[in-house]
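hey so i finally got around to running the thing on that chain from the lab meeting. sorry it took forever, my laptop kept dying and i had to restart like 3 times. anyway pasting the input first so we r on the same page abt which one it is
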Amino acid sequence: MTKLFIGADHRGFEKKNQLADYFKQNYEVIDLGAEIYQETDDYNDFAIRVAKAVLGNPGSKGILLCGSAHGISIQANRFKGVRAIVGYNIDLAKLGREHNDANVLCLSSDYQDLENMKNIADVFLNTQFLNEERLVRRNNRLDEEVM
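ok and heres what got predicted. didnt touch it at all, straight out
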């Protein structure tokens, strides 16, 4: 069973819990917080936890939620080997898996409803990377040091 790491700050807390329950049937869901609603928490902490967990468990996936999905995706992408995408719709989530071999999906708790999130995440989790030479080459470049 595929491991699915999930995390969210206070703004994504409620929807994170609902998504975790939804995916428990088909995935080994590991909730990396927030454990309790705390209005002063920082999205960074949960993005770091999920990014490290995905990197430490090859073949696993991650889902992160914050208000906009922007901050949490920026933080997750600080880790070499993490390819976090913001999935505002099904087409973008599918493209992120097919072309970028994304392993973390970031969702916006302020701009997406729960049913939309479920549909987007389902597509993300069930879409395979196309593994074409040009895509592999481009994705490998994402981990290059840039100065």
